[in-house]
Write a sequence for this structure.
């Protein structure tokens, strides 16, 4: 193969990877970012001030408990399809095990991954509450209800599964997959890191600019850790813990506590 042919093949490969990234994001969190932007515009142009509006995470879908459970589980399952797609694409040509090892989604160092995940959750969680409360005080964050599910026997397990689904989707796609692909596309690591963080912030825009900014900061921290260690599992653990505390804590906490935090 001549140098010209090699360069042409390289350009074709980069075009294919660029198209792949757009497709994966378009089917997952990139699509969410577009809808979140539209929802923010709708909120900002409504007659009700942004600070007086609310957003409910994990809403109930059906008044019939068994049907609501089915909808919740089906929704969680389909939300994980982009994760499977990202891993499938990363697996070529060496297989799934190599892809999991490549982004650090394996169990080769469980103790350290759990410790780091718990540490990251603590590092993010407490300032995160402050960001939320500050945003509420400034009127740039909507009132967030982390769970809208009624109290059934399956409520807590479903909220835990929802937390795990969010963590896998966001950390595998926006951190592991995206940063690996941008590296292959010869992006500088600072540019890739900022892009990943901005995507994370964009799909949280429906909660208001305050939470979007907070999620950009979270994305910079988690992305920087990934670029240093190439381990996405600690990020999944941290994200799962944060969402479990938020979702389950909201579902079980007394009303007076929620009012103190501006969640009720």
């Amino acid at each position: 193969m001549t140098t010209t042919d090699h360069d042409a093949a390289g350009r074709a490969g980069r075009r294919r990877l660029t198209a792949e990234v757009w497709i994966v994001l378009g089917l997952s969190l990139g699509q969410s970012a577009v809808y979140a932007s539209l929802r923010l515009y709708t909120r900002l142009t409504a007659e009700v001030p942004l600070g007086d509006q609310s957003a409910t995470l994990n809403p109930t879908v059906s008044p019939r408990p068994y049907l609501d459970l089915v909808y919740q589980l089906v929704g969680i399952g389909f939300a994980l399809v982009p994760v499977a797609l990202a891993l499938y694409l990363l697996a070529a040509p060496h297989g799934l095990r190599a892809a999991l090892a490549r982004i650090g989604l394996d169990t080769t160092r469980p103790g350290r991954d759990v410790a780091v995940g718990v540490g990251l959750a603590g590092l993010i969680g407490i300032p995160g509450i402050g960001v939320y409360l500050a945003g509420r005080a400034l009127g740039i964050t909507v009132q967030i209800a982390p769970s809208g599910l009624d109290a059934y026997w399956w409520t807590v397990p479903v909220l835990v599964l929802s937390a795990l689904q969010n963590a896998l989707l966001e950390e595998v796609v926006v951190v592991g997959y995206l940063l690996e692909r941008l590296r292959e596309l010869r992006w500088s690591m600072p540019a890739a890191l900022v892009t990943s963080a901005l995507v994370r912030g964009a799909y949280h825009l429906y909660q208001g600019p305050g939470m979007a900014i907070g999620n950009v900061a979270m994305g910079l921290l988690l992305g920087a850790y990934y670029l240093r260690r190439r381990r996405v599992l600690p990020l999944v653990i941290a994200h799962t813990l944060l969402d479990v505390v938020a979702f389950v804590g909201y579902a079980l906490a007394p009303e007076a506590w929620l009012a103190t935090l501006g969640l009720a």
User: Anything to note?
Assistant: The mean pLDDT is 93. The chain has one domain: 14-260.
